[in-house]
Amino acid sequence: MSGEVFVSFANSEGRKYPDGITLLEISKDAQEFFDTPIVAARINNEIKNLESQVTANCRIEFLDLTTDEGNKIYQRSLAFVMVTAVQELFPDGEVTVEHSLGNGLYCELHLGRDVTPDDITKLEQQIQVIIKENRPITKRTLTIAEAISLFSTSGQLEKVKLLKQLNRDKVNIYYCGTAYDYMYGTMVPSTGFITLFGLAFYKPGFILRSPNKDNYAVLPPFNDQPKLAQIFREAERWGSILKCGYVSSLNDYASKNEIGNIIRIAEALHEKKIAQIADFVSEHRDAVRIILVAGPSSSGKTTFAQRLGIQLRVNGITPFPISLDDYFVDRDHTPRDEKGDYDFESIESIDLKLFNEHLTMLLNGEAVSIPTYNFRTGQREFNDKVIQIKSNQPLIIEGIHGLNERLTSAIPRDHKIKIYISALTQLSIDNHNRIPTTDTRLIRRIVRDSQFRGHDALRTLELWQSVRRGEERNIFPFQEEADIMFNSALIYELGVLKKYAEPLLRKVDVSQYQYSEAKRLLNFLGYFTSIDEGDIPKNSILREFIGESCF
């Protein structure tokens, strides 16, 4: 029948609606099936905001706060409301969204003076006012020229710089009252969708908190992470040294053929930091028998361990590296998660008994035949690889579980140094759109899995949620137990990874569930100018993912 569309749903029977009806109107019929507010929808594997119209027969999966996508939309929308509140409360001030920290977003308010707890209290009250008014959050599609003019008028020069570099005809600008901003990603239709948030002074900035998808009814408690905060501050200093805090600045270096210097300085910062860590280990050489290198997937643990080993040799220490990956149980013994899928991130996927037996034997000076894990066959193999270490020779063990005492329970704590490594990027898209560390690691993993593990991008995306769950359970809770933290991000790397990742992501078809995530990553990589890898040294952590590593 003309004038109607048929909509099928993921959790209820389909029905007909008038042609041109919005997703917001349809969502009112579906809300009863959800415990939290619906904030967006996936239509034929593409994520759409609720203001979108339905003009053809389709299948709709509504996204509420219990989904990863819905939770990100809520957090992004809350950040926009916060930006709006700052513009209204402090018209001559500026706010920057920096990075995640302690179950929230760390932000900084720039007022030309020291920010006080009273300033943050006033900001929280203004956010509450905006939410109570339930103002529409309206998306308007502007030409690039119109958007450049808009942000030039308001003096937001970083956004102007980025917009001039985009290879796009149009961009979406979001409005809330008289406030407007360029926000990367889908938003909720109105401020009233923000039902729960928290704001707390955290010198020199503040923490903006929102519910997480696993417990959406309450705010997660702020979990102070001083060691991690220090590493983020270090990343900010590195960005200042390189004069490259935003993507547009990186693109400028690439387009002006000045990227070689950025690569060399970034790599030198890594080398200096690794040398400092080696010096710390050397100062404790009398007690240390094991150096544990831990971190989430694709943080560069393997290359870091190799480079640390070289720096230790400079200090007269000859370590022996052991990879935790070689102690995976055979595939048919791998534990499964709640969905029945293999849980490769669980500590139970490691043969803890065998691993601790081997550690004890090695530290006692005995010869040990260690295994090698074959990722293609999913089997642990013994290929007559026998090692034996001296009493003054520490082991370097890298793997995601290094900070967990269960992993090395047979070895006393004072014989171990724990190092946490993750890719905490120094870059932001602009002052209000940060680059999540998970995106950098996911893109690294997509490239590495294609290069060395025989996986296409679809397979990596399929596994990623399981990987992330494993990190939340097995890695992040132990971060602050590290003796040392190392940031493996390289400020230039996304420009290099772009040419490797884009062809892989384009192969994810619209008929596949992971298409929306592939499309999001492609849009994200579209902000970057491609960077040639010719100047990247063979010992770079990035070589672990793109190839030609000397290790």
Automatic annotation (TrEMBL):
MF (Gene Ontology): ATP binding; uridine kinase activity
Assigned EC number: 2.7.1.48
UniProt keyword terms in alphabetical order: Kinase, Transferase
InterPro entries linked to this entry: P-loop_NTPase, PRK/URK, Thr/Ala-tRNA-synth_IIc_edit
Signal peptide positions on this chain: none
Keyword Kinase annotated: yes
Residue span(s) of domain Phosphoribulokinase/uridine kinase: 290-488
The name this protein goes by in its record: Uridine kinase
